[in-house]
Amino acid sequence: MVNFGKKMMSDQVEEWKGYYINYKLMKKRILKDFSRMLDDQIEKIVLFLLEQQGLLASRIEKLGKQRAILFEQPDISRISELREAYRAVGQDLVKLLRFVDLNATGIRKILKKFDKRFGYRFTDYYLTSRSNHPYSQLQQVFKQVGLGAVVGALSRNLADLQECQGSYLSIYDQPSATPKDPIIDVINASVDKLTRSTNFLRFLGQHALITQEEVPSADEEQIEEQRYSFISLLLNLVNTFLYMVNTYIIVPTADDYSVSLGAPATVCGVIIGSMAVAQIFSSVYFSAWSNKSYFRPLVFSSIVLFLGNVLYALAYDMNSIVILLIGRLLCGMGSARAVNRRYISDCVPSKIRMQASAGFVSASALGMACGPALAGLLQSNFKLYAFTFNEDTLPGWVMAFAWLAYLIWLWISFKEPVRDTEVNIPEGSGSGSAGHVVTDELENGLAQPLLLSSEDKQNEDDDHDIDESEEASEDSRKPATSLRSAYRLLTPSVKVQLLIYFMLKYAMEILLSESSVITGHYFRWTTSSVAIFLAVLGLTVLPVNAVVGTYISNMFEDRQILLASEIMVLVGIIFSFHVTSSYTVPQYVTSALITFVSAEVLEGVNLSLLSNVMSSRLARGTYNGGLLSTEAGTFARVVADGTITLAGYLGEDKLLNVTLLPSLVICVASIVATVYRFDSFMSNKSLKYFCDALAEALDCVQLQKLVID
């Protein structure tokens, strides 16, 4: 994308040029009286917005009087003229909505630029102090439904004119039967740019660590549409679901399988963890491969997973623990989660990317729950020819069949997205989808700075220098090209967040992987009981995220939720220790629920904050933030599974406490690090406050979606 300063000049409405935020002036004087100048800029925008709202309301009121006269004395020609007059109001409303959107983006960007350039979190202070003040421009104007009321009145009056020739029912009486008018579609498209998604979808999407960028231009939206295929997205989500099922379907029976092959029960840690070991390496080459193709990596993944599951199942009849481990390693080599993430980030249109990210997280959670549940159902025991089918081998056979079916579906239906060099953009395409209704004034802006003073010539030279500096800085925002260069971009705050992610993945893996051994040793649980327990844990993911994303995240800052979740994980770990003469089911189940649920909440908030403190150079490319977090989490799982196997040599009666001790130490270390770096963990809520307030002002428009023909 071109730098925002140039884009803002090109998108301005000429007759409103004096009322936009003076973005370049703010950049030049970013240290001198910044707060006061930004207050002045926002006040200028707000007062102009109020003035324009009043003018639009006045025009609608006058047209309403004419409409009332026409209802008493109908005249077809005058009705058509009146409809055109209403549409002219609609065109001006679109201009005003774009004015608001462009200024909101300018304010967000200038605050981000201040924070980034001077390393001071000014954004949170500025927006919090201004929004909570009784005379706040934001509170007085943007958190009300003025613009929404204008849209509602405009839509209703157009609908009444449409119905003038027949029924006199209002659109409020028959909202579902309301016909369409092109200008209302344009208005709704403008409103949608300010209201992309709900808090719950945003919270779920944060788990995926998939970049949510600024609203794209019309050309960029056209490129996104050419890349996007719903079936291809669905195939990526199914791949995510099946891989998570494949990961957890063996957990309830891994200890029994290892015993049947002559190994100790605690070797289940190696069996489960071998998949994670291979994933450490597969994530890198799949991420690199996705730079060139999405289809071929998914095909390769499906084939490798099919072979890996076949070997896992055959290991029983071959009586070979080595074959079993090779099968699990192959399954890990088929982990295409990096491809799934990249597809959503690069190929799904921005307007539905958050929903797709939430779908990615939901597919993962559902797979985590379905894996153990499916294992609990596979309790048969029979032979077919020379092959044994029992609770140990059936997970392998079932997943092999599932991956074979998926491979066939993938081969038939997947559509490889077009690359940037292959995308065709029609010549002269405008910046909006409503060129037939909106005048050229909306498409063509100014090519000179705003609010020039007597120092015009000097300012123009300064602007040129700033633009050159901004363009030169593009090189410093190129993606990292190696793990080493990516590591150099990790600030202390990012490192703390990755430590937290390592901790929560370690604690969850210890809990899940050793569950069959612990419950068998202390409670004599059957495979079905362990499967039900693990499935229930997995099913808590979405309800908990719904509560946190919808309610708790609106009541507290992300960093506060982060620290509270870490403390709750610590409480769950401490409560899990076996320190008395007896170890009861209520103690184990309660402590497991506290640990697992708290870790799930912590994961969402952790990845949200990680995306805010991580360098923009880690947003794209092979060595991106998603890959780094995946590697940290996968390494944690490997260490946890290795700990289980090593601790098993001390005896099953000591396994629980020995494996919990590292979890306790790492959790305490992460809490100390969080407290130390607490002030540097700023959420993106304050940064997005301006647009969120505008979104609230237009909520009624999103609900009505009024369209007239």
UniProtKB/TrEMBL annotation:
Main localisation: membrane
Gene Ontology cellular-component annotations: membrane
Example of a GO MF term: transmembrane transporter activity
Short name of any one Pfam family annotated for the protein: MFS_1
Keywords of this entry: Membrane, Transmembrane, Transmembrane helix
Transmembrane segments: 230-251, 263-286, 298-315, 321-339, 360-382, 394-412, 528-549, 561-579, 655-678
Record has Aminoacyl-tRNA synthetase as a keyword: no
Residue span(s) of domain SPX: 1-128
Composition bias type Acidic residues, residue spans: 458-473
Localisation: Membrane
Region described as Disordered: spans on this chain: 453-479
Membrane topology: Multi-pass membrane protein
Keyword Phosphoprotein in annotation: no
Family, similarity comment: Belongs to the major facilitator superfamily.
Name used for this protein in its record: SPX domain-containing protein
Species assigned in the record: Ananas comosus var. bracteatus
